[in-house]
Amino acid sequence: MTDLLAARAQMAMSLGFHILFAVAGMAMPLLMVIAEWRWLRHGDKAALELAKRWSKGTAILFAVGAVSGTALSFELGLLWPEFMRHAGPVIGMPFSLEGFAFFLEAIFLGLFLYGWKRLSPWIHWLSGLGVWIMGMTSGAFVVCANAWMNTPVGFDLQGGEVIAVRPWEAMFNPAAFSEVLHMLIAALESVGIAVAGIHAWALLRTPNSRLHRMAFGIALLVGGTAAVAQPFSGHISADHVAHHQPVKLAAMEGHFHTARGANFHIGGWPDVAAREMRGSIEIPYLLSLLAFSDPNAEVRGLEAFPRDTWPPVPVVHVAFQLMIGIGSLLAAVALLFALLAWRRRALPTDPWLLRLAVVCGPLGLIALEAGWTVTEVGRQPWIVRGFLRTADAVTPMPGLIVPFLVFSGLYAVLGVVSLGLLRRHLFASTTYEDEGGADAVA
Question: Is 420 exposed, middle or buried (0-12, 13-18, 19+ CB in 10 A)?
């Protein structure tokens, strides 16, 4: 393994691990404040117990996310010194604001965890709301910094050095809105669907548990609503990529040849050597329509760009197909649950629907990882598009395979410990069984 490949593998592993805990910190607080709101409005003891369990789970995920996020900050400086030298002065503000939001989130979480008997009920609820707002804000600032790497603005170059930094322009760069919107919705969708899957599995084991039925309903409401909204956000993101990163769009679609009325590919494998798509289903004109809102618009193919600026086309295409395929499936499942709930005027908990929810549980997180693969790998060979190549930003330090193996072990241990702690807190013995089968979320 070359040093560049080892550095990229370590960064990819660290980001892939950290993002799971980051989105949990963005979405889990919303679930716990909804549960506490139900307790405050209806005096439902199962809702109180659920809010406490979810708050403990949030604390565990927050702690692990803090550890993995700290490791990432060190890796940025140690593995990518040239990136930090050039980009640090430009995107320092969103990173600083992210730290500020993170500490506020920690303060609000401390108030929520230890304020059950020390704060008035609604002040306690507001502290939980603060955890959610600061978690979402923290994530938004980080994504602004990442968006700048895709559309770098807010600075001038003189002799290869960054001068005249305009931090507000850099933070609110052209990609910021579409990336932040897509990421915030993805956090709610992936975590909501995952939590719904966990409690659907618990309901299959304990069908009379009001606590798990309520948890399933709340999580499904949050995750399902986000799943239905995400395709609209995805269209906004695709429109931005088409106008600002056309080579990434071409790689996402395996679109090799410039054409008007370009076809949209479903599935298939991009044969880079032959510069053709193999085995895909083609929908005429759809790519032009989605990218430019015009079925006859011209979409530039990969051949329109220098070969050394192409990202790894097969990786980007497969990740993109995985993301939109799962996203479409989750939106359809969410609409199915909504239709059945509307017709029955109650939360549908048929065993086959619960099994479907269990199967869908991890899919949102898989789509999340696939989406970040599209974003990051699709930008290659640039670490800052059009300005700094990844190969020029890596540290010259040899032997990077050793820290890669060490961090792999660390993340494996953290993952196992986290799962054990979450299982202990989420599936405690109290079930709050129904009296006569009353629906806890009706």
Answer: exposed
Please state, as a whole number, how many other Cβ atoms lie within 10 Å of the Cβ of residue 408: 15
Per-residue confidence band for 338, with pLDDT thresholds at 50, 70 and 90: very high
Residue 383 burial (CB < 10 Å; 0-12/13-18/19+)? buried
Which pair of tokens denotes residue 414? 């953290």
Residue 317: count other Cβ atoms within 10 Å of its Cβ. 26
Non-local (6+) Cβ contacts of 310 within 8 A are: 247, 251, 302
Residue 374, H or E segment:
helix 363-377
Backbone torsions φ then ψ of 368, nearest 5 degrees: -60, -50
**Residue recorded with tokens 């401390």:** 110
The confidence score (pLDDT) of residue 441 equals: 39
Q: Distance of CA 210 to CAs 42, 193, 206, 349, Å?
A: 14, 19, 9, 12
For 387-432, the pLDDT digits (tens) are 888 888 877 666 667 777 777 777 787 778 777 777 776 665 445 5
Burial classification of residue 314, based on how many CB atoms lie within 10 Å of its CB (0-12 exposed, 13-18 middle, 19 or more buried): middle
Q: Are 26 and 140 in contact (CB under 8 A)?
A: no
Q: Which of 330, 49, 319 is nearest to 188 (CA)?
A: 330
Q: Which residues contact 23 (CB under 8 A, 6 or more apart)?
A: 139, 186, 187, 190, 191, 368
Q: What's the mean pLDDT in 339-362?
A: 91
The HSE-up count of residue 97 (CA atoms within 13 Å, CB side) is 16
| Partner residues linked to 278 by β-bridges | 269
Answer whether 173's CB lies under 8 Å from 147's CB.
Answer: yes
Taking a C-beta distance cutoff of 8 angstroms, is the pair 240, 178 a contact? yes
Q: Which long-range contacts does 414-421 make (Cβ < 8 Å, 24+ apart)?
A: 414/17, 414/64, 414/67, 414/68, 415/17, 417/64, 418/21, 418/60, 418/61, 418/64, 421/60
Residues in Cβ contact with 205 at an 8 Å cutoff, skipping those fewer than 6 apart: none
d(CA 91, CA 395): 20
C-alpha 412/C-alpha 409 separation (Å) is 5
| Residue 262 DSSP label | P
Residue partners of 173: CB distance under 8 A and separation at least 6: 144, 147, 148, 151, 152, 153, 154
Name which residue leads in pLDDT, 142 or 10.
142
Pick from 413, 361, 419, 384: nearest CA to 170: 384
Give the start-to-end residue ranges of the domains of the chain: 181-396
Q: What whole-number distance in Å separates Cα of residue 207 and Cα of residue 146? A: 44
Q: How far, in Å, CA of 426 to CA of 219, rounded?
A: 14
